[in-house]
Amino acid sequence: MSTYGQYQDARDAAWRALLELPEKKLPVDVDALAKKLGVEIHPFPGKEQALLHNLVSRAAGGPCVSLRIRRAWHIFVRPKAFDESHRRFAIAHELGHLVLLHETESLAPGVRCFAARENTGDVMEDTQELETYTADLFAIRLLAPACLLHEMHIDSSGAIISLCGLPPHAAVIRAERMQLLNERDVYYTHILETKVRNAFLPWLNSMRFPESAAIKLRYASESAPVMEIHGYPKTASQQEEASSEAASPPRSEGISYAIATESPRSLQKGPLYRGKAVGLRFLIRRNRKSILIGTAVLLAGVLLYLFGR
Predict the structure, then answer these.
(1) 106-136: per-residue pLDDT in tens?
(2) Who contacts 232 (Cβ-Cβ below 8 Å, separation ≥6)?
(3) Model-wide pTM > 0.90
(4) C-beta atoms surrounding 51 within 10 Å
(5) Could you give the CA distance from residue 7 to residue 165 in angstroms, rounded to a whole number?
């Protein structure tokens, strides 16, 4: 499989994982996702657990490592090795190895680990290890989904760190990629990305319009997704015709995993979304009584002035 094909697999796996989240909001709860996938998270075992301690030590290429013991997967995180953002990225990286079915090797009878072991809790530059590269791709796209950042108008590293809890290095890479995606306006050409956006709509609108949570939203069905935010409703068949994947390979910009094409050519361009209009209508409805009273007082004042003359 080509590097671009590997990239597509990691991107699509991240979208599917987002749809599995118990709570559809940012920052992504990686612990809850791991539990949903049947993966247990533990601290590194102490020397009193001699057998397990030796196995983890042999498998570890960094402060976080996964072991399959019999048929169950376990992630071990070295205590105090990470701050929270790096810990979350390290766990997302390990989940990437798991959902992408990366190669494993035997440590002992009934115990296996991933062949690509290095995990620093952040994106690693100049790596030649393809499986490490795709696990990093998965982690970035899981923790900072492009479509949600686009809907929130976020493309700076500082804002991404604040909203998504991404480590600084990974946030810089994501910000550079977001700026390129926004220039190309390539969103919602894949059905999975549309499903992710629709699944997160309640959270998106609670963030954008915190006082208008009661506004009814139309949710897209799996058979006929409705692109309501971007103002160009399309049927499933129309979207499928427009969503053929671009086959161009990723180009090099120093960090290979940061530049693979996020999605093919866009659909027709349209307004980002009708946020200002919705907000204005909501403001008018909420203050209708005050507006009517103010208008009546103003008219009365004008009439009194005219008759007074």
Answers:
(1) 999 999 999 988 888 888 765 557 899 999 9
(2) 267, 268, 270
(3) no
(4) 10
(5) 23
